[in-house]
Amino acid sequence: MSLWFFFATLGNIAGPILGSYIASTLGYEYAFYTSTGIVWAATIFFAATYLRQRDRQPPVIVKRRGLFAGFRELLKIGTLRLTCTITLLGFLGCAAVSSFLPIYAVEKIGMTTIAVGSMATVGATARLIATPLMRRLSDKVNKRKLLFAILAVGAALFALYPYAVDQWQLTLLTIGVSVSFSFGVLSIAIHSGAAPRELSGMSLGLYGTFEDIGLMVGSLVFGVAWGALGPSSVFTIAAAAAAAALAAVLALTLPEQKQ
Predict the structure, then answer these.
(1) Residue 196, phi then psi, degrees to nearest 5
(2) Among residues of the chain, what percentage have pLDDT more than 70?
């Protein structure tokens, strides 16, 4: 999983700088043409190398459950309800950065296309470096306390976004916020540890569902807030969501304290 995440993040690092360069030199439409070509190349590579291969490990035979029945069973576990809540609120912040920060940087700060792409690449690089460090640190420090600290830093940095006056301040904030997004490493570790063995795969699906809900709801909420309250409100709401996630982390520690 660490190796998979490493290469996924490399894509996040290369994509913004490559896309912004193509968009600024050839036009925005060519960035989409290039993305189409890359996806087709990946599809052909997969079909030519892995499509006919069998899985190396036989599937684990477990009791059959419907998707929604399995989700309901998982959500009866208090720890999983809290980690899903933390994930949803945390990915609201991810939606603010991925969907609205580039527009904010151009319209409010006056950054160029290349500068915005470079900022996204630097942020993804910071997250790539921070994630394995968080994994290692979580083996030495209580995961819940570390998760609380990371989300607290993220909430503070989101609240500072409206006060950034140039591209360097905005980029520094983005680096810090990107590092705080490594909270997912800790929340998914807690989530997986609390899930029953026979539902481990479905529990990861549940976790991913709440990630997607956070991105989906965040984009909608921030779009409405941008038009009704102004661009800075996006980051204020993201800060409030991260602060609300802190309350969920505190609730997450209660069972541990009773033990």
Answers:
(1) -65, 145
(2) 88
Tokens of 178: 């990107």
pTM above 0.85, yes or no: no
Contact 84, 213 (CB under 8 A): no
CA–CA gap between residue 229 and residue 212 (Å, rounded): 25
In angstroms, what is the C-alpha Rg of the chain? 20
Number of Cβ within 10 Å of residue 207's Cβ equals 20
Amino acid at 130: A
What is d(CA 213, CA 190) in angstroms, rounded to the nearest whole number?
A: 20
Which CB contacts under 8 angstroms, 24+ apart, belong to 153-156?
A: 153/179, 153/180, 154/90, 154/93, 154/180, 154/181, 154/183, 154/242, 155/239, 155/240, 155/242, 155/243, 155/246, 156/239
Listed residue (78, 74, 75) closest to 197, CA to CA:
74
Angle 56-8-207 (CA atoms, 0-180°, nearest 5)?
Answer: 75
Q: Which two tokens stand for residue 28?
A: 């925005």
Task: Round to whole Å and give the CA distance between 179 and 105.
Answer: 19
118-158 pLDDT, tens per residue? 998 899 889 888 888 887 887 787 888 899 999 999 999 99
pLDDT per position as a tens digit, 57-95 = 555 444 555 666 777 888 888 889 999 999 999 999 989
CB 99 within 8 A of CB 224: no
> What structural domains does the chain harbor?
2-258 (1.20.1250.20)
